[in-house]
Amino acid sequence: MVLFLIGLGLGDVRDVSVRALDVIRRAYKVYLESYTSILMQGTAAMVELYGRPVIEADRTFVEQGCEQMLTEAKEHEVCLLIVGDVFCATTHADIFVRAKQLGITVKTIHNAGIMTGVGCTGLELYRFGYTVTVPFFTDSWKPDSFYDRIAQNMRANMHTLVLLDIKVKEQSIENLMRGRQVFEPPRYMTVNRCLEQLLEVEETRKEGVLSADMMAVGVARVGTDTQHIAAGPLASLVDLDFGPPLHCVIIPSKSLSDMERAMLGLFPPRSYEPQPEVAAPAQAPAAPSQ
């Protein structure tokens, strides 16, 4: 029948579109791709809203073929839910291609993604160059190919969106070698860790691409009520508390428009301060009398 690739948006389970919700509620099965990104509310909140069980499709499920899901989609309507927009990760394009090769009809329902969501900073979206991802460094593994992309963007007078690593359902080397299905606690890279690693790479490469006094923007939880943005010299952001995940970083072009400067000026370097939750009204207020 049909494989639906459905974007969930960035911030809240309620960001799902009405059209998507109709499909989810009638589908034979509902899968959630749960390793390229996450909604921090978790699957329980989705189940409550959708009124349907949600099957988590982890990294192994997605990268090793999704055979079960694709087989089911040959006979039924099946949904794969994706945080953000559908095609922000090549993983989902790969699923699209494989489904098409099997003769499965694929329909896409889009939503907001981080690639457009960062427009909340006021930086002009058409001035963004290559997007890069910074992985967690280890003592023996410190890949730095992102450094060259940032340099390329800077030479072209473009901004760089830096996506930060998340580790969900990861195994330690020991457990992997022993074949034990034991997983490490989830880890989400912070703005702080990212900036420290960027400066570490600069210290190694010494090519003058990055510096402590260059402008940077830290962004957390785009699209949520607790969204937090701080812009300023890179060194001024390293020790700030940006609050819970998910985070990203932007390295702006050295040449900003007047509007971009005005917008970034609204977000001085400051730590995130949680606000007390406001209880929702027990019922909607009555309509005013005419």
UniProtKB/TrEMBL annotation:
Catalytic activity: 2-[(3S)-amino-3-carboxypropyl]-L-histidyl-[translation elongation factor 2] + 4 S-adenosyl-L-methionine = diphthine methyl ester-[translation elongation factor 2] + 4 S-adenosyl-L-homocysteine + 3 H(+)
UniProt enzyme class: transferase
EC numbers on record: 2.1.1.314
Associated pathway: Protein modification; peptidyl-diphthamide biosynthesis
Biased composition (Low complexity): 273-290
Database matches in InterPro entries: 4pyrrol_Mease (IPR000878), 4pyrrol_Methylase_sf (IPR035996), 4pyrrole_Mease_sub1 (IPR014777), 4pyrrole_Mease_sub2 (IPR014776), Dphthn_synthase (IPR004551)
Chain segments carrying region Disordered: 268-290
Pfam families: TP_methylase
Keyword annotations of the record: Methyltransferase, S-adenosyl-L-methionine, Transferase
Residue ranges annotated for the Tetrapyrrole methylase domain, each copy included: 3-237
Family: Belongs to the diphthine synthase family.
Function: S-adenosyl-L-methionine-dependent methyltransferase that catalyzes four methylations of the modified target histidine residue in translation elongation factor 2 (EF-2), to form an intermediate called diphthine methyl ester. The four successive methylation reactions represent the second step of diphthamide biosynthesis.
UniProt-recorded name of the protein: diphthine methyl ester synthase
